[in-house]
């Protein structure tokens, strides 16, 4: 049976879409799983991002759109304060002495997100999520490429915003499928890497061109089902998000500025244990190698293939596998506490660290804690914290002889805290 859409629900949906448009104007960068976010929604982030088989709020449809079928009518809005500590060391290089460079002149980033779900019938739900897919920022006051002739401060800033209108259908009791259209907005800027213009097919569009932006689209599908009363399984698949080219940086990125968002997919399992304890885990695969600007090795650059060319040099990232484990404990009718751990394989090979001083997305372990308080009237308040200890990747013959050899060693650690407000308009 179709349910009428109330005035308050229409107003909330309008607010969600308007806020999504506003966020698109100024969305900050983050990086924990390569350059993806470690999770979507403050409650999911408290269990290390595990949401494929365990949706807790409306933003979880960013992980699995089928989750919208089981969350009722609700609205969520949250913000995360994210602080990465990134840096690089040039060692054994003939152009100058060993030196460490701090890439964290910009220390803090505020990352908002929101979601809304409306159950329009007993089996059909609609929703929208607005969130930061990820990004990368480095900001070197002292340029690590200065010894090679680069001028000024150096760094890059990549930001990715996704707006995901979603539909979910419960085709059998406890079993649902869902689909989302992902509308992407990306921004990018590079500075202080003008020395690479001499290696580009378009030298005027490599560095210091200001902020460029690009829109794109892709699709996400998912399944979520109760296999038994105590066991649930979730599956998701997201296509590559096909994006416009970064015209201002068509001399930097392979294929004349092409920068799609990689495809990824995953499997999640949730065990509803006794005494209010839920255990969830998942495995995810992100196909960074499917995007030339990210996945193509840089080696061809020093073999005569210019930056920006068809199938040209990139950052040399490998595909990654992410493992997540989380536990959520319902203390009583008003309180839940949670914790989680995630591990991601290293995307950056040791021989690809030179260019990746600009994008050292190498953290691997993530440790999280979180909690939610809910009122009897449907209000929820949630918070979480994350710590990702420092990982250093030492280069192996990563600086070519033309730049006097040696190695670039890159490192990254992260901390983050987040808060969110949710409201349930009704229950199933």
Automatic annotation (TrEMBL):
Range of residues in the leader sequence: 1-31
MF-aspect GO terms: long-chain fatty acid transporting porin activity
Membrane topology, record value: Multi-pass membrane protein
Pfam families xref list: Toluene_X (PF03349)
Gene3D superfamilies recorded: Outer membrane protein transport protein (OMPP1/FadL/TodX)
Transmembrane residue ranges: none
Subcellular location, record wording: Cell outer membrane
Keywords per UniProt: Cell outer membrane, Membrane, Signal, Transmembrane, Transmembrane beta strand
Superkingdom assignment: Bacteria
Any one annotated GO CC term: cell outer membrane
Alphabetical list of SUPFAM superfamilies matching this protein: Porins
Family of the protein in this entry: Belongs to the OmpP1/FadL family.
Name of this chain's protein: Long-chain fatty acid transporter
